[in-house]
């Protein structure tokens, strides 16, 4: 079902080109919902907000942010990594998905056929040769499908075991994207796309060291190379004053993912003497300020 609404021809400038609201796509305009428009043009959306405030377009325009989720990105990066490192395993996984769907569809088709014959059967069902033949064939087919499913489960377990070895790389990689994505809070012009991020990940896979028959070293090389490339590429677009901040954020996130980040130590590093450490008598030394002594006391509290 489609919905239609009439809008006044309100115009705006987009890169020097005169455009109007009619060039946006109308999604929905049901009563009680209000007109919803879709556009890839940021000026169009911005202008829509202005029209909304002026009560020309609607009472309210809601902007939806279709940002990727950490779990979704982690799974995407895992798929990319396994496809590059273990192409046979990834191919098996994709084939398993197809075979599983086909098996389910085949079972559903058999069930529907039996139900149709039962509903249309007249008299004694034992005299219905077509129904009896279908039931016999369905039993044989079901046994074959069950055997196939068991084999698929064994293969799936092996595939999943192989994929699990690469999870740490995808988890860390996914976490780093959100560090970079949040840089826009520091400076609005720091904007990085997911496609750009994935390209760096692919470059890291291609250029990382490949030790023979040593998977753990390969995983460590992948993580190190990706962090290195990501830092270098992002730094190319940062002001000099923000580069140290980026290295600190990446280090914090890496330690957080590895569960090695001490939050109290992090707080001490960031707030520098404002954590409320227990007061201690300060030594009589002119070179030792109250602030420095407070920080030393906090370090002692941390043990």
Automatic annotation (TrEMBL):
Subcellular location field: Cell projection, Cilium; Cytoplasm, Cytoskeleton
GO CC terms in record: cilium; dynein complex; microtubule
UniProt-listed GO biological process terms: microtubule-based movement
Entry annotated with the keyword DNA damage: no
Keyword annotations from UniProtKB, A to Z: ATP-binding, Cell projection, Cilium, Coiled coil, Cytoplasm, Cytoskeleton, Dynein, Microtubule, Motor protein, Nucleotide-binding
Gene Ontology MF annotations: ATP binding; dynein intermediate chain binding; dynein light intermediate chain binding
Domain Dynein heavy chain ATP-binding dynein motor region per the UniProt entry, residue ranges: 58-145
PANTHER family the UniProt entry points to: DYNEIN HEAVY CHAIN 6, AXONEMAL-LIKE, DYNEIN HEAVY CHAIN 6, AXONEMAL-LIKE-RELATED
Protein name as catalogued: Dynein heavy chain ATP-binding dynein motor region domain-containing protein
Organism whose genome encodes this protein: Polarella glacialis
């Amino acid at each position: 079902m489609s919905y239609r609404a009439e809008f006044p021809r309100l115009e705006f400038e987009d890169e020097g080109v005169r455009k109007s609201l009619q060039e946006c796509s109308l999604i929905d305009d049901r009563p009680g919902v209000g007109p919803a428009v879709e556009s890839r043009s940021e000026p169009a959306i911005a202008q829509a907000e202005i029209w909304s405030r002026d009560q020309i377009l609607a009472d309210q325009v809601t902007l939806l942010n279709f940002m990727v989720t950490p779990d979704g990105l982690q799974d995407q990066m895992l798929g990319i990594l396994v496809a590059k490192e273990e192409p046979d395993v990834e191919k098996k996984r994709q084939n398993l998905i197809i075979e599983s769907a086909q098996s389910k569809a085949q079972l559903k088709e058999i069930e529907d056929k039996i139900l149709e014959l039962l509903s249309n059967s007249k008299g004694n069902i034992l005299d219905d040769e077509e129904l009896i033949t279908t039931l016999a064939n369905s039993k044989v087919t079901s046994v074959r499908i069950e055997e196939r499913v068991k084999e698929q489960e064994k293969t799936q377990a092996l595939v999943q075991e192989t994929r699990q070895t690469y999870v740490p790389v995808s988890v860390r990689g996914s976490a780093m994207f959100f560090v970079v994505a949040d840089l826009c809070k520091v400076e609005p012009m720091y904007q990085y796309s997911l496609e750009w991020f994935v390209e760096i990940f692919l470059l890291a896979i291609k250029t990382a060291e490949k030790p023979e028959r040593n998977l753990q070293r390969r995983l460590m090389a992948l993580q190190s190379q990706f962090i290195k490339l990501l830092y270098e590429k992002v730094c190319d677009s940062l002001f000099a004053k923000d580069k140290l901040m980026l290295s600190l954020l990446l280090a914090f996130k890496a330690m957080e993912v590895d569960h090695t980040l001490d939050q109290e130590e992090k707080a001490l590093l960031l707030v520098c003497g404002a954590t409320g450490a227990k007061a201690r008598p300060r030594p009589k030394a002119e070179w030792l300020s109250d602030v420095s002594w407070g920080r030393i006391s906090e370090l002692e509290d941390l043990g």
